[in-house]
Structures are given as C-alpha cells and as structure tokens.
Amino acid sequence: MAILHEPQVELIAWTGFAKPEGYPWTTDSERDGERLIEFAGRMCYQSWDNPSGRTNREYIQNLLKQGHLSVLEHAQASFAISGISRSCSHELVRHRHFSFSQLSQRYVAEDEANFVEPSVIASDPRTHAIFVEAVEAARQAYIRLNELLEEKFSHIPSRVERRKLARQAARAVLPNATETKLVMTGNLRAWRHFLRLRASRHAEAEIRKVALLIYQKLLELAPAVFSDFQVTCGADGVTELITPYTAD
Amino acid sequence: MAILHEPQVELIAWTGFAKPEGYPWTTDSERDGERLIEFAGRMCYQSWDNPSGRTNREYIQNLLKQGHLSVLEHAQASFAISGISRSCSHELVRHRHFSFSQLSQRYVAEDEANFVEPSVIASDPRTHAIFVEAVEAARQAYIRLNELLEEKFSHIPSRVERRKLARQAARAVLPNATETKLVMTGNLRAWRHFLRLRASRHAEAEIRKVALLIYQKLLELAPAVFSDFQVTCGADGVTELITPYTAD
Amino acid sequence: MAILHEPQVELIAWTGFAKPEGYPWTTDSERDGERLIEFAGRMCYQSWDNPSGRTNREYIQNLLKQGHLSVLEHAQASFAISGISRSCSHELVRHRHFSFSQLSQRYVAEDEANFVEPSVIASDPRTHAIFVEAVEAARQAYIRLNELLEEKFSHIPSRVERRKLARQAARAVLPNATETKLVMTGNLRAWRHFLRLRASRHAEAEIRKVALLIYQKLLELAPAVFSDFQVTCGADGVTELITPYTAD
Amino acid sequence: MAILHEPQVELIAWTGFAKPEGYPWTTDSERDGERLIEFAGRMCYQSWDNPSGRTNREYIQNLLKQGHLSVLEHAQASFAISGISRSCSHELVRHRHFSFSQLSQRYVAEDEANFVEPSVIASDPRTHAIFVEAVEAARQAYIRLNELLEEKFSHIPSRVERRKLARQAARAVLPNATETKLVMTGNLRAWRHFLRLRASRHAEAEIRKVALLIYQKLLELAPAVFSDFQVTCGADGVTELITPYTAD
Q: How do beta strands C179-187 and C76-85 pair?
C-alpha cells in the first residue's frame, strides 16, 4: 500500500500513416497523424496540388478555424493511465467517444491497493491523518471481508469464480480513493473535446491534472492539432487550458 | 444513513407516436413504441399494405429473427434508478449508447448518505458487522474532512464553490457502497444489448438485479420487443435472462 | 413520376414523461420533454426544492448558457421526412448520433419515382428543361435495365430475391435527385447540433430547407430548448438559424 | 470519363504501439495492433505474467471466443477507397462507428467523373449499352447545367462560392453510379462488425466486394483478430465471409 499524489500518463499508441500511390501530393510534416489528417482533408476537395504552398501546420490550423473537425478523427492516441482514483475513472469513462480497458475490481485483488490522496487533503496534517486512517481501515475491512467471503464460497470448484464472487462483494468498502489503472484510446477530435472540458478550471482537480498531462503528450505528438490551446494559470493558482475555438 | 439492499427502478419516460397522414397503413398494437417501430420498418420497404395480415407482434418478432435491429432504435425508455452503489454506476456508465444524469458527489453533500450492502455480505452476521462498521467509519471521516476543508476554503466568497472544493476532495474516503441515483435513457436496441450483457449470469450481482428490474418494466412497455427473453434460474440460485437471438 | 420542390417533414414521435413518486418537486411546464430535462438536471444536484421559484424555461435556458447539454439527451424527437433527394439523405445519414430507417432502393421499385428539383434549377426554364429531360431519361433507363435484369435472374426461384438483384443493379442509373423517404430519430442535444450545422448559411440549400422545417416543429415541441435560435434572412435571400451559444 | 468495375482499397493508416515502462510483460507478436490489444486486455486483469505461456494469437482468439471485444477497439485501421459508386458510399456512411472524409460533390467538379458499372450490367451487351448511354447523358446534362448555373451566379464575387452554388445544384442529375472516393477509419471491433454485415451474402454486391478487399488487408495487418473469418463461395458463385462467433 502506498499513498499516491500524481497521476501517471504514458502515450502508448498512435496512428502511423503510409501515403498510398496515385495521389499527386506531398507535405512538409513528418508526423504521421498530421499527414493523415491533411490527406483526408484533401480527399474531400481533391485539392492534391498546393499552389499557394500552404504548410501542413497552416492546413490544420485552417481546419480548426473553420470548425472542419471531422477530419481530425482519423488520427488517434492511446494512453496508459495509472495513479488515479476510482472517482476520477468514473468521470473518465463518461466520455463516450473513447475506448477503455480498466483494471477490474471484480477480478483483481486489492489487498495491496494504493490510494490517491487529493492535494488539498495532503497539504494539511490534520486532513492527511484522517485520510490515511480512513483508507487503511477500509483496506483492512476489505481484506477481512474477502477472507470470509472466500470461505463462504469454498464449495465452488473454480478458484477464479470463487475469488470473483468474493472480490466483487468485498470491494463495496473500498474508497473512491483506491487507485485504478486503464488504457484510454480516442481520436484527436475526441481528445480536443476532452481537453476543453477536463483541462478547464471548472473540472475537478484530479481529472484536470490528468488532462494537462495528456495535453503535454498530445502537443508533442501532433503540435499543429493542439496549437490553439494555451496553458494559463489563474490568480487562485488554478492551471487550465484555454482556446479561442469553441467548436467540438 | 440507511443500509440498502434492493435497487429502485422506475420507468419515467418513453416514446409517444402519432401516425402521420398519407401513409396507407394501420396496425393492431396500441403501444406507441411498437407502432413506431413497425412504421419505421415499413418505411424501408414501403410495405404499407399488409396482405398477409401480419400482426404488430409478428412484424417485430420477424425483425428480431432477421437481426434487423436498427429499427428498434426509434423507440426509447428512460429510468430513474436509485438504491444502487457507485461501483454499480461505474459499470452502468460504461454503456456508451445511453444518456446519463447522475447525482454529483462534487455538488451534493454525502453526510447522510445511504450505503448499498451486497446480499452475500448481508446474509452473514460477521461480514455484515464489518460492512456496517466500515461504511459508518468512512462516513464519519467524510464529515470531518468536509468540515476541515470548508474551513480551509473559507476565504472563497462563493458558498457553492467553497462547498464544491471541499466535497470533491472529501468524497475520496467514501466507499464504493455509497448510494447513487441517476436517470438513464436509451433506445430499445441499446436496452436489449444491455439486458443481454447485464442480466446474464456472468454479470456482477448488483447490476444483474438492476437489469432484471429494468427488463420487467420494458416487457410491460413493449412486450413484442422483449418477447424472446426468458427468465431462468440456475441450480446455483442465479436468475438470468436468456434469448435465442445473438445479434445486437 | 412527379417533380418535387419542397421537403415534407412531420413530427411523428416524442418523449412522454411521468414523474415518479418520491421526488419532492413540481414544475410549471406542461411539455413532457421539458419536464424530463428539468427532472434529470435536478437529479444531478438533488435540487428538488426550488426556493428561488425558477421557471422550467429559466431552468433550461440556464442549462444552455452553462453548456450543460448532456441533460437534453433524455428527450427525443422523430420525424418522417419525404420529398428529399438521395444527395440530401446522403448528407443526413452522416449524422452519427441519429437513428435512420430509409426507403431501400434495393427492395423498392423506382419505376414511378419522383425527383426533387433544386430551386435554382427550377427557376430558369432552360435549366428546368435540362433537368426534366435528364431525370426522365434516367427513369426510362432504369425501367429498361430492371426488365432485362429480372429476365437475367429468372432462374432464381424467390421473387423477392430476383427483384432485389435486379433493382440493386438497375438503380445505378438513378440520379441524386431521386426522391427518398425516411424516419430520423434523435435526442434534443443531437437536434441542436444538427440545426447549428444544417440550418446555417454554409449548408447546402436542400438540407437547409429540411433543417428549417424541423426547427419549426422542434420549437413547438420544446420551445425552451430551442429558444436561443433566431431565424435571420441575409441580404442575399439566404434564411438561416443563428444562436449565441457555441457548445454542442 | 471511364467506366470502372472494381473498387480500389488501400490500407493507409494503422496503430503503432510502444510498450510503456513498468509493466512486467512481454509477448511474441511483432504486430503493433495485436500487441496493444493484448496489453489492454492484461490491464483489466493485471495478468502481466503469463505462466501458461499463451501466445498473443491464443490470447486474442480467447477474447473473440469470450466476446470480450471492447479490447479490440484500441487498434484502428484507415483505408483510402476509390472506384466505388455513390450508392455504395451511401451504405458505407451508415456505419456510425467509423470516421469518413469523402469527396464533396458540392466542391469538386464532376465534368470528368468516372462511373461504376455493376458486374451484372457489364456482363450483358444490352444492359451495358443502356448503362453507358445513361451515364454519359447524365454527365452531359451535368456539364450543361453547371455552365448555365455558373452564369446565373456570375454576380457572386467569390469564385469558390459561385462554383459551389452551381455544382451543388447541378449534381442533382448525376447518377448513383458516379464514382466517389473517401477515407474510412475505424477500430478493429467496428471493422469486424462491418465485415460480418457487408461481406455476407445478404449484402449488396458492390459493398461486398469492398468488404472482401478490406478483409484481405485487415487479415495481413492483424491476422489473429480476423482469424475466425473464412472465405466461402456458394453454389451460386457468391463469395462471402463467415465466422462461428456472433458477438459484435
């Protein structure tokens, strides 16, 4: 058991692109996702030549400006996310344009689970003490419930089934703070929408941390697609992303 | 604070239908959703006359048999669901073809929260005692954290904002068992898919209860659309829905 | 065969609502969709009492202002649409948050098909003459192809199958202008998005007509939900909808 | 202008994967999509060790057998498709889990458009002659309408706008057979669903050709994910895909 304070976000998958034969087009970007986006956009208008010499970055910035965002859907990014709480993942999985594979509390034992402590609780010894005591008590209750339930289900031949029945009930006492891990995949249009909502000052503090970390990775992956976002820090210390564009 | 054992499911909204002028068609069903489904199906083939005298029920059963399920999407049903745990809602909101409005732990105080006890825990005095003690301890920790955090944020002028900042952090110690409430809306195709997955014996016990209750309401609302499902009870006491049809 | 100039749009289905027991809430709207939306919104905050005496309309207008649009997803509306071209339906079915049941050219004979003439073509006798001649020639080619193909497939015992094989090939010569009919269902959030895109001056002329007709029906159905849209007519005679809100 | 008989399908984008640090797992596949799928599946159960020495192929085949298909959503594939008709694309874009960027008849001139002739029409000189005459007549009508409409809109200063207004009306006479081109992106679960429906003998002949070509490319890209599909040819000469698995 450990008390965690920062989410871990790793970019683990993204779109590779191979320009097909027969399209009289070249571009200046070396990033596959951005090249695919320009290719798909030019498919709509068959504008394979580029007389004005527009760069890939200019092309994509024009898409953002025009709100022609469906073209961004062709490129995707996947993240492995850990060090987040179950209340954070409950918010994450509300985003219906994404795909998720998440640690299952029905199948995985949480005897040694970690717990994610909100910063505002960690920063005060009084609240920190309450938090640590509460999550440790919950963990002990979970372990004890799990033992008694496995005993109760000892007549079930399958060990996997027996454990599942015990764990899915015992987890009832685990707190929102329990760490979870997941893979989250979405296209770049969906990620833009996610950042607008979840890296905003109106978002909950933990998911905003996650969104800001994801933004850093996405900005490296496809700088033109996220070039309109600006990191700003308010007088109250809240860091958020803002953009002049409102379309999703 | 109460300990809850059964979910509450109420059908609160469903589709009304008014046959438009100019379509030479009548049907024998008096249920709006089923009439709309037949109307939409007949639109595809312009089969407004019905020479073989097929009933609405036969028409819909044929759709199920053919796997022509997109027609079922025109009719919807909404449920108000309460008495379920946050671990159950975490599974519910994974269904991306539905719409949800759920009690927010960021905005709503949980000082008097109820807790949902799994049946297998309730049925043994030893596990029941551990459960009750654990959730009550969590509730007390939540109340104390909330007080200290509201104090910490006392410089913030907006009471709504101050409370939100306290509650969204304090909820970290609330258990999975904490009761939540929500409105869940979906079309009848999506509900069929939901029932196939969540009223199955492979589903977790609490969500299976919810799914079986929803099934009862849907069967009243649109009996032809759910007529293939059979309630069965296994030797191990597990009640589930089964259907001969496999398409979603 | 007829030449059509105006789409037909009929509201055929919408959401009915029955307030469940046990929620200490009343509202002043008599429209079911709007009552459901307020109910779902209040579920999130458990704000069942209404000390400030906010009307349902004010409640919904605040949702629009805050961009809290997921609540609008619980109420839906279905339209029967006819008198539109296949190029228009090709644009309609790109909207992925809707459900569609459309006349199938594989199954339905188009010998007596109608054709939708664009206004700008109809308004000039020269273009009108070209259009009428072209669609009539296409129809004759379709009829002749269909006959020859049915002959070719005369060895196939099933009349339905034989006809399908002939029609799905013969339709290759039918023009974009060929009339189609469909049922289109979506929730009110999706319809707002649709109106923003398709009732805009940037939309194609025919789909803009459809969107403006749908808007009129939606405004009657749920006036508060669409109260921010304004019909405006430009100096160039283009009628469009505009709204101060940008979120979808 | 050319008469086309075969669709062109090229795989242009797919998912690359980089295993993150800190997960004690290796696998035997060298295909990124398949490695990502196994990684995401193991995230759910934290089954990073592999005591039974299951291969990646065995792991994925077990997912298919269990119907645990959400894990397949993390890997995607994009195709550039050309040589297909507008009636085929009208069917393609009905698949709502995909992203599309399609040649716009509002913006692109179709003076030199190609036309896709159904095989059953091409195989008989009588039907072939009718087809060729019909599409050439439609093309000539389009060219003439376009000229007259550009004249009509000659007062509009923007050349792009003027052309758009002419083309979006003139296309009304273009036939279903008119060639279109598009980029289509989806995840591997969506592609499996697409193949089940569109490579089936019940599918329309042209889209079945497209689906079978896509299948060949997907089988190369991720053989384990599509290993259950079998190409079969019926006594009537219809080639289709079949699979023992029914879940989507």
A: antiparallel
